[in-house]
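Internal tracking record. Fields below are filled automatically when a chain is submitted to the structure queue. Please do not edit lines marked as system-generated. If the sequence contains nonstandard residues, flag them in the REMARKS field before resubmitting.
Queue: standard
Priority: normal
Entity type: single polypeptide chain
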Amino acid sequence: MDKKDFPGSSFLGAARRGYHHGRLKDALVEAGRMLLAERGSAGFTLAEAAKRVGVTAAAPYRHFPDRNALMAELARQGFVTFGQRLSSAWDNGRPNALEALARMGHAYLAFAREEPGLYTAMFENVGALAEPESGAAADKALAILRQAAAAVLVEAGGRPDNARKLAFEIWSLSHGVAMLASGGHLDPRNPGCDPAEILAGGVRGMVAENIRATGGRS
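SYSTEM-GENERATED OUTPUT FOLLOWS
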């Protein structure tokens, strides 16, 4: 994967020219994002990030005490951006909750496809969410999904009792589809293998079942 694929990679050159002027942290975050996208969490170390930036192996420790701290910052940034995209797609449930929920599914898959480094930091290491800031960003992003689930149930005449359960079901399916798509197992060029269609169909079934369970119109 070429560095030009990552718009923030200009931080790397800036860090090499003068990281002591405060750009090292940004450059390390960008290097970490690139490494995670290229190699996954197994190939991600502070030393490798430092090498990518062009500084000594000791330099990152002024900003990140260890690998997990940098991973937590990447997870925080990922969930902030992820939450913004979900919120924009939800658009206060307009024109109706089901359509808005479908847009969120497209936004979810697009984020996983376009930001593989951040997505890895967010979901491949639950320990990254132990930090208060990254954990809070994750909670805020996933609260949007719970809000959408509740709105769908209420709109169909049901009760929002199952909103948390429905949200986790949708999240689990979305993550599974996203991972299969990123691994090349789901290719929209092949019949029946369009990730967006698979996700949409699965979500419709989950929604219908939860509406029936809460006494609404499935």
